[in-house]
């Protein structure tokens, strides 16, 4: 999760200067940087009382090796290191790569799951539902690892890297596309429409990640504003929010969405409370709802999976005391904690372009719920069907949500489709990329 709005004001106060004649030569893997990592963790880490009593920084060859050695392993799967530019770019959708995701169906066939419009894949016309049969001339089965996962060897996200993909299209034809990685601006809204269902107008919204629009103050997403206006103008009666591939992102944008979804009668009530470590209790703060827009829905339907994490789970947890929420698909990932970047609080990290993003807080909803490390359990377990494009009524999870709205139940035909993939895209990523998973 990104730094909460309540931290932004403190960040701007922490500005350092140096002698203009002094040339600072960054050395990101120096012992001084490792010492700064330990020092920052001792001050800010949510589980700081679980850190080792002493740490010999010279024993670790890399910053990543050091961080992995000292984090609280029973619960922390999330703390990471990156650069300041990479962190800032990710939270406003400045990406590099091919710009797509993929997943396996129940028969272990690989499909494109989403495509960013302005990415190299998007500009080449790729669509959700295209089956990937070969990558760089090799069958998908050849990329299977001894552990049962997959390593597709697509290289780093650096512009200029080329990979080829052979697809089987929905009409049965095949095509091979050579795609070159490049920088692009990613979109968060993958699909939106209004479905007429037995006299009801049902909104369907596929949201891929909580990214802010660059330059917006306060931090917010213009995409979210536009989507909510679309649904308000349509006069929807129900809303399905599809977060099955949403790994998280900006807490500020999650708050923005919550403020659209909360009913007018519950504005100003508690959204969530941040809980920090014992050294930072003076910075703990509660955030209340502040109603935006004209949507007033008593219930919401979420399509979720193990790729639904972080800010996605914050949305579900914050709204659940006030809104009747139903989860369809698979259990969520289980990340009731969040992070903000620490380089602004440590000159050594800042000067060496090291961004330390450890777990720094937990979030509790109005009922005090903050312990969902196993994820939120689904109400109706239904299998994924990436072979169908967004909005296709054959998409099993969308069909289940519509079935529930129309009939008050989900048929056995749909719940019997449930399977849990041995490998999911979120498994191949760590750190910053796990929050914004895409190839």
Describe the structure.
It is a single chain. By secondary structure, the protein is α+β, with helices and mostly antiparallel strands. It has 3 domains: 5-90, no CATH class; 94-185, Pdz3 Domain (Roll), CATH 2.30.42; 189-435, 2-enoyl-CoA Hydratase, Chain A, domain 1 (Alpha-Beta Complex). It has helices spanning 5-11, 31-44, 63-70, 84-90, 120-123, 222-234, 251-261, 311-319, 347-351, 396-407, 412-415, 432-435, and strands at residues 80-82, 94-97, 100-104, 110-115, 131-135, 138-139, 162-168, 174-180, 182-185, 189-197, 200-207, 238-242, 270-275, 286-288, 299-304, 324-329, 337-339, 355-357, 359-364, 380-381. Strands 3, 4, 5, 6, 7 and 8 form a 6-stranded antiparallel sheet that branches. Helix 7 (251-261) runs parallel beside helix 8 (311-319). 42% of the residues are buried.
CATH fold field value of the largest domain: 2-enoyl-CoA Hydratase, Chain A, domain 1
Shape: globular
Q: How large is the radius of gyration?
A: 22 Å
Number of helices: 12
CATH H-level superfamily title of the largest domain: 2-enoyl-CoA Hydratase, Chain A, domain 1
What is the top-level CATH class of the largest domain? Alpha Beta
The gist of it:
This protein has 439 residues and is of the alpha+beta class.
Which characteristics define this entry?
single chain, alpha+beta, Pdz3 Domain, 2-enoyl-CoA Hydratase, Chain A, domain 1, 3 domains, six-stranded antiparallel sheet, six-stranded mixed sheet, 20 strands, disordered N terminus
């Amino acid at each position: 999760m990104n730094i909460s709005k309540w931290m932004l004001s403190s960040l701007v106060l922490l500005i350092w200067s140096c002698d203009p004649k002094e040339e600072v030569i960054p050395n990101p893997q120096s012992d001084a940087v490792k010492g700064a990592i330990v020092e920052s963790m001792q001050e800010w880490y949510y589980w700081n009382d679980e850190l080792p009593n002493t740490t010999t920084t010279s024993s670790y060859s890399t910053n990543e090796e050091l961080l992995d050695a000292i984090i609280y392993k029973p619960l922390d799967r999330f703390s990471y290191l990156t650069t300041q530019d990479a962190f800032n770019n990710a939270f406003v959708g400045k990406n590099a790569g091919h710009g797509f995701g993929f997943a396996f169906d129940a028969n272990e066939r690989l499909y494109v799951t989403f495509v960013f419009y302005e990415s190299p894949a998007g500009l080449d016309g790729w669509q959700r539902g295209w089956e990937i049969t070969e990558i760089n001339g090799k069958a998908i089965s050849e990329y299977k690892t001894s552990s049962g996962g997959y390593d597709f060897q697509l290289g780093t996200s650096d512009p200029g890297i080329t990979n080829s993909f052979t697809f089987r299209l929905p009409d049965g034809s095949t095509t091979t596309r050579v795609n070159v990685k490049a920088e692009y601006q990613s979109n968060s809204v993958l699909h939106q429409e209004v479905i007429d269902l037995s006299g009801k107008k049902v909104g369907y919204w596929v949201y891929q990640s909580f990214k802010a629009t660059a330059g917006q103050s306060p931090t917010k997403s213009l995409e979210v504003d536009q989507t909510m206006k679309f649904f308000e103008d349509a006069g929807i009666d129900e809303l399905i929010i599809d977060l099955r591939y949403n790994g998280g992102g900006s807490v500020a944008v999650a708050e923005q969405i919550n403020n659209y979804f909360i009913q007018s009668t519950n504005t100003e009530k508690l959204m969530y409370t941040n809980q920090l470590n014992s050294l930072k209790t003076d910075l703990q703060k509660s955030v209340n709802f502040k109603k935006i827009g004209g949507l007033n829905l008593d219930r919401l339907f979420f399509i979720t999976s193990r790729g639904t994490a972080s800010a996605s789970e914050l949305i579900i947890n914050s709204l659940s005391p006030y809104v009747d929420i139903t989860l369809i698909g698979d259990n969520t990932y289980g990340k009731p904690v969040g992070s903000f970047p620490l380089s602004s609080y440590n000159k050594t990290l800042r000067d060496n372009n090291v961004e330390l993003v450890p777990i720094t807080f937990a979030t509790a909803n109005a009922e005090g719920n903050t312990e969902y490390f196993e994820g939120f359990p689904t109400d109706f377990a239904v299998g994924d069907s990436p072979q169908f494009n967004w909005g296709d009524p054959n998409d099993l999870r969308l069909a289940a949500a519509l079935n529930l709205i129309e009939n008050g139940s989900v048929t056995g035909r749909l719940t019997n489709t449930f399977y849990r993939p041995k490998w999911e895209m979120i498994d191949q990523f760590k750190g910053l990329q796990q929050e914004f998973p895409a190839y």
